[in-house]
Amino acid sequence: MKIISVVGARPNFMKIAPFIKAIDDYNALNNNSIEHLLVHTGQHYDDRMSRSFFEQLEIPAADINLGIGSGSHAEQVGQTMIAFEKVVKMEKPDWVVVVGDVNAILACSVTAKKEHVLCCHIEAGLRSGDMDMPEEINRLVADRLSDLLLTPDTISSENLRKEGLADDKIVFTGNIMIDTLERNRVKASVLKIEDIIKNNRIGGGSKSLLEIKSENFALMTLHRPSNVDSKEVLEPIVRFMLDEVCRDMPLLWTVHPRTRKMLESFGLWEEIMSHENLIPLEPLGYLEMLKLNMHTKIILTDSGGLQEECTVLGTPCLTLRWNTERPVTLIEHGGASVLVGNNINRIREEYQKALLKARKPVRPELWDGKTAGRCLGAILDYKITT
Ligand code: UD1
């Protein structure tokens, strides 16, 4: 059997690492019977957004890099399709495996199906219901086209059934990101918070540098276009962080490239860089982020993956979005996250409540570190019915 798996952007890397490991483990016992090729579309290309994840998570170098880079959605998707079609025609795989919800999954699932290749989507069935989110469109297309839909939770399986997708395509395999978390917990825990700051600090934080202790700092990430692309939304969030969070404790902010560009263009960057209790950091490696997540008092984020990691680590999490495709991570479903959107009154209210909360780790069903093996098993068990 020949499998091509595809990655494009940062959140894909922690999902593909355990899948490749599962193939290696299978091959070691089965005479290398699976031929696997890893294709990187090149959407994320910086060392900090890509290479460091390959190194830390021991992902083998991509066999093929399509070199797509930055651009509008249509440019990224269109160029990926053109380049990936050539790869599929040449390599003739039995399966194309896509993970998560970035632009690569839309481009490569369409291309796979047009080339009559079976397609498997790992992390299928997540739905935010928000069609303004580029990822929602990617998920809808990839799920509609995939022959095998591997879901992280039972709510996602149900979403797919409600959309009329055939039951025999849907397999509940669990959350593959948690395989990576469990595999790297010990490695992350031995890192030192001071070293992470020293090695990744962009500036700022003169007062707070000596005050960073476990459970005595806040951690923030922000990168959704809906939060960072307009000054009317971003500036009040920044004000809240500087005037209120930083009054209570040091704030570590790992700044995504998109967010940095916007902060600079809105004239907010200098103030962030010079605030004595805010420490802006470069985008962090997987292990560094996991370590900070294990020790922060609270996370403020618009990332989907962090909501999941906070659930398993029990970190109180304010999700700066109005909806989520991952309801299983919300407090009402037993998780650690609360949706606060970008309304400052709501953020303030939930922030105050979250500060009073203790860590409460939770493990949703099949978030057990063994998902990748089940994903590969589902592919190997797949029976062509038509
Ligand atoms: C993408 C994903 C999003 C994911 C996020 C994680 C889609 C639709 N979005 O969004 O789901 O949560 O990755 O980071 O696929 N840039 C760099 N260096 C890089 C890559 C990008 O500086 O290595 C810059 C680009 O020039 C661009 C900005 O970062 O200005 C955003 O990159 P883009 O590829 O548009 O997507 P993300 O916002 O990162």
* Cofactors, ions and other ligands in the entry: uridine-diphosphate-N-acetylglucosamine
CATH architectural group of the largest domain: 3-Layer(aba) Sandwich
Q: Which CATH class of the largest domain?
A: Alpha Beta
CATH superfamily of the largest domain: Glycogen Phosphorylase B
Q: What characteristic shape results from the CA principal axes?
A: globular
Determine the fraction of residues in helical runs and give it as a percent range. 40-55%
Provide the β-strand percentage band: 5-15%
| DSSP summary, beta strand count | 13
CATH topology of the largest domain: Rossmann fold
Tally of contiguous helical segments? 16
**Biggest β-sheet: strands ordered side by side in the sheet:** 3-2-1-4-5-6-7
Can you describe this structure?
The structure is a single chain. This protein has helices at 10-29, 47-56, 73-91, 103-114, 134-145, 154-162, 176-189, 193-200, 225-228, 231-248, 257-265, 269-274, 286-295, 304-313, 344-355, 371-381, and strands spanning 2-7, 35-40, 64-65, 95-99, 118-122, 148-151, 170-172, 218-222, 251-255, 278-281, 298-301, 317-319, 337-339. Helix 1 runs parallel beside helix 2 (47-56) and helix 4 (103-114) runs parallel beside helix 5 (134-145). By secondary structure, it is an alpha/beta fold. Strand 5 (118-122), helix 5 and strand 6 form a beta-alpha-beta unit. The relative contact order is 0.12. Helix content is 48%, strand content 14%. The two termini are 19 Å apart. The strands form two sheets. A seven-stranded parallel sheet has the order 3-2-1-4-5-6-7, with helices on both faces. It has two domains: 2-175 and 367-385, Rossmann fold (3-Layer(aba) Sandwich); 182-355, Rossmann fold (3-Layer(aba) Sandwich), CATH 3.40.50.2000. The model has no long low-confidence stretch (mean pLDDT 96).
